[in-house]
Structures are given as structure tokens and as C-alpha cells.
Amino acid sequence: MNQEWTNAVRRLGFTPVEQPETAVLYGMEQVLEAMFVKAVAMAERRSANGRLVLADIRYRPTTKAQKYFRRATVLYYEEAGLSLPHLLVAPRNMADALVMQLASPLGIKTVELDDDRDFTARYCAVTLEPKSTRALLTGKLRRHLCAHHGLTARTDERRIIVFREKHVFAPEDLAGFVDEAD
Fold first, then answer.
1. pTM (global) more than 0.85
2. Which of 152, 136, 30 is CA-nearest to residue 88?
3. 139 FRET partner, CA 20 to 30 A, in 21, 65, 133, 166?
């Protein structure tokens, strides 16, 4: 963690973390469905209910096709009483159709929002719980995601992680990322 990064996160109200808790790294592994999450730099903001973590991480996706580590700046939130559907919201790409063909036998569904063609054209929402996911993807949230196209969000029961795939933000750009991801 360099001094420029440390100063930037402090200006944002985060406290730098020298030695990340194993539980936080494990939580990131769970929600990212990844292995070997390592923090290059990490800072956190705690509240009475939860913890917001800003981190530059290296991780390895668990799919067989992904043999290499990825690196990204992430905003991670966990709260013991939180109840979220398992969900992936990611920018649409050519692989979406293939992924869904493979996932359908497992009960994973794509959530299509016919009333929001802009969001549906830009993003793919994949979940085991379509009804809960539709309730979570409010119009305000969908407009925010479309305005900040490229963000990916993953959730599990009590955690959410937001990032731009394979993107590491420079210290001077962290405030913008926290603003768009928060």
C-alpha cells in the first residue's frame, strides 16, 4: 500500500488496513466465487451495522477457463442482518447466451425487465431468485447502473461487491469510483 493510496482513502473517510482479516478475504471469495483473494491494498469504514471495504485485490475466478489471476478495485459491503438474493449483475457481452445455456439446468435464471429495455440491453442479471431480484433492481438502481455502465455487482445473502472487471483505479480516481459504486 503506497502513501498516495493511503492518503486518498483517508480523504474518503476510510481507515487503511495493514493486515486484512481472514473473514473479509473469505467473504470476498464467497461473493466473487473466486479463489485466493489477496489484498494489494485495503481500507474500511465501519458502522454499527456493517463494514464497507475499499480494496485493490488479486483473485482467481473458479471457472476452469480462468487460469490466471485478475486484479480489480472493489467496494465490498457486509452486514450480519442483510438479506439479499444471490445475484450477478454484469454488462452484457457475447458470452451471456452461452453462460445462460450452461446455467439453466442448474436453476439459474436471467431476469429480463421488459419495462426497461435500456437496462436489459446493457446489463445481464443472473440469479436463483428472480422475484427477489426484480424487487432489488429498482428503477433508481437500474438508471444508476446504466449511467455508470461497466459496473459489475455480485451479492450473496449478506454481502455485496461492486467493481469494474479487470480495472484498478489510481488513487486520484478512487473518489469517483466510490461515488459511482456506493
1. yes
2. 152
3. 166
